[in-house]
Specification:
By secondary structure, this protein is mainly alpha-helical. The protein contains 15 helices and no strands.
């Protein structure tokens, strides 16, 4: 692999032109490349516009820099919308977990192995690792986080409903998955009618990976998570292969399982608007190509109508 070296913007534009990209407005092109970073813009979003089977990088005839930038903008807006709903789910999950767990195990000295599912050596280790990690974070934050500092220094304990505000979605996902089954079931019932505890375990862990992707401002539309969403009725309805449950359509499915009907419909409308906006800006490739990369089936709008 050749070494990446610094190049002036005019040279970068020249390279794009030599590979078939149409530059309509050189001044706009220079400004756009400098503001977005050539690597982030081109290397991040060129793939759908590239011809396959060539010995060198060549774009489809008629590809414009504006089209590549439109996909970049689509993805930026997709991240903003996606993290909004993930954060809503995270907040609700933390609140319900804190309520249900505190109701059963109290608000003092509750971080004990007997309050969690420790059946089997694997679960025992998971619980041990979880508790050790939580104690480390309490220790780390006791002089940095005012809410934790107040309870640790004045009350000598910290209620779970305070602690959850200072831990990550990954932490709360692990916390929930290691709770006693009856406690997990109580949370799932309160989260949404008909939701099973194993489904909530899967959704929280899976969405955590996309939350991190959004938070780090990384390409989202084509992202394939290392975690997969577990099998569910929606995947079966669309005949989704078990190997294809780690893409953006899986996010849409997880939202369907967790969000209220009104919030989900609002989310879908915003996604539809995004697709419509991008479709108007694309001329070289069809919008269905982007949807395919995202794992979205042709009849995806049926998801909105399903119970």
């Amino acid at each position: 692999m050749s070494e990446k070296v610094f190049r002036e913007t005019r040279i970068q534009i020249g390279i794009l032109k030599s590979r078939g990209v149409i530059i309509k407005n050189k001044k706009w092109a220079k400004q756009t490349i400098r503001l977005t970073n050539y690597y982030n813009l081109i290397n991040g979003y060129k793939e759908p516009f590239l011809q396959k089977g060539t010995n060198y990088e060549k774009y489809f005839f008629g590809t414009t820099l504006e089209e590549i930038h439109a996909l970049y903008e689509f993805d930026r807006k997709l991240r903003i919308i996606t993290i909004e709903y993930i954060l809503e789910i995270e907040k609700q999950a933390k609140s319900l977990i804190a309520f249900s767990f505190s109701k059963e195990h109290g608000h003092k000295n509750y971080l004990k192995p007997e309050n969690f599912d420790t059946q089997g050596a694997k679960k025992q280790k998971q619980v041990s690792d979880l508790l050790s990690d939580l104690y480390r974070k309490i220790e780390y934050n006791k002089n940095r986080d005012l809410s934790i500092s107040h309870y640790v220094h004045r009350k000598k304990y910290i209620p779970l409903w305070v602690l959850v505000n200072s831990i990550s979605m990954g932490d709360i996902s692990k916390f929930y998955s290691n709770m006693l089954q009856k406690d997990r079931e109580d949370v799932a019932r309160r989260m949404k009618w008909g939701l099973r505890e194993n489904q909530l375990v899967s959704c929280l862990f899976f969405l955590c990976t996309f939350r991190n992707r959004c938070a780090h401002d990384e390409r989202l539309y084509s992202y394939l998570s290392y975690a997969s969403l577990s099998d569910n009725m929606y995947f079966r309805y669309f005949h989704i292969n078990s190997k294809n449950t780690n893409n953006y359509f899986a996010v849409m499915t997880a939202f369907k399982m967790l969000l209220s009907k009104n919030r989900y419909n609002e989310y879908i409308e915003r996604i539809e608007d995004l697709f419509d906006e991008l479709s108007k800006d694309l001329s070289t490739i069809p919008i269905k190509k982007i949807k395919k990369i995202m794992g979205i089936p042709t009849n995806w709008r049926s998801l909105k109508k399903l119970n």
